[in-house]
Design goal:
4-stranded mixed β-sheet; mainly alpha
């Protein structure tokens, strides 16, 4: 799994580097002062976003740090999982929100936090909660926050790379329009790459959770309840600024969550068909999403379940 994580990161950054390299080669200005200025600006953007990220996330989500005595069972659960994974204990936060969800954030593995919605504690059973927490610990283990912070700057870098390195013709307004359109196209391609990387890392965190707990069925059940649930108002008071960090997003396919959970635990795939088929109508829209379709995540977890024989 670590090899696949490395490869996906290299592919994204390699693609961006190749595009920039081609632009620089075609214009013949590689090594000019503008290159160093552009790189300096990009590095400053990354540094500011990396440093300010946790502060912004806590402010935007309304997360409040928990003390051990306020939620001893939650602390013990996370301590057990992080110890098993060989990671330091993260700080725990609570978000007063009835929609069941969670997210991990932080600058490094030693300076990380996991925030859970109050709804997560009331709508999931113990094994499902443990699976979701293991998923968030997977993000910490894979250093996803740092990777995605760096990746999120790439679309902007591509945009300005085109503006800086595109050939100039002072007497042609047409060239300027083409350059601006090219910059927007480069930015859009960069954003698609970032969202693809985000979706891949959700798969990696799912697999981490399934193998750490040896209970992929619990993560499948939690995914189904959260994504396909009709009883819980998803996104209530949630900030769009932290949407990409969440465990999952509503799938828009409303079914009886407990029937779905029961079907998953019993090994019956038939009960999921209606919800999955409704969600699959989104089709290519997944390209514009930070999370994979829940149907695809369930399918991947089913494969892992067969692999480990859980």
């Amino acid at each position: 799994m670590q090899l696949r994580i490395f490869i996906t990161s290299v592919l994204v950054f390699g693609l961006v580097a190749a595009i920039i390299g081609l632009i620089m080669m075609s214009t013949g200005i590689a090594g000019s002062g503008s290159v160093f200025f552009w790189l300096a600006i990009s590095l400053v953007m990354v540094a500011v976003q990396w440093w300010m990220g946790p502060i912004i996330v806590k402010w935007a989500s309304g997360a409040k740090e928990l003390k051990h005595e306020e939620a001893p069972e939650l602390f013990e659960m996370v301590k057990h999982l992080t110890s098993k994974a060989g990671l330091p204990m993260p700080k725990l936060y609570i978000v007063n929100n009835n929609s069941p969800n969670a997210f991990a954030f932080g600058r490094t593995q030693g300076d990380s936090g996991i925030a859970v919605h109050s709804g997560l504690l009331t709508h999931l059973d113990r094994h499902e909660l443990e699976a979701v927490l293991a998923h968030e610990i997977g993000h910490i283990n894979n250093r996803d926050v740092a990777v995605m912070t760096l990746a999120s700057v790439l679309p902007v870098m591509l945009y300005y790379a085109v503006l800086i390195f595109a050939p100039r013709d002072r007497n042609s307004g047409g060239n300027s329009i083409i350059t601006i359109l090219g910059a927007f196209v480069a930015q859009f391609i960069g954003q698609l790459c970032v969202m693809w990387l985000s979706r891949q890392r959700e798969y990696f965190a799912d697999e981490f959770s399934a193998r750490l707990t040896n209970r992929p069925v619990s993560l499948m059940s939690a995914l189904a309840k959260i994504s396909y649930g009709s009883a819980v108002p998803h996104g209530e008071n949630s900030s769009s600024m932290v949407k990409a960090l969440y465990f999952t997003e509503p799938a828009g396919a409303k079914v009886d969550t407990y029937e779905v959970a029961r079907a998953i635990h019993s090994g019956s795939e038939a009960a999921l068909t209606e919800a999955v088929e409704r969600e699959k109508k989104l089709g290519a829209m997944e390209l514009l999403m930070t999370h994979p379709l829940t149907a695809n995540r369930l399918h991947n977890l089913l494969r892992i379940r067969k692999e480990i024989g859980a």
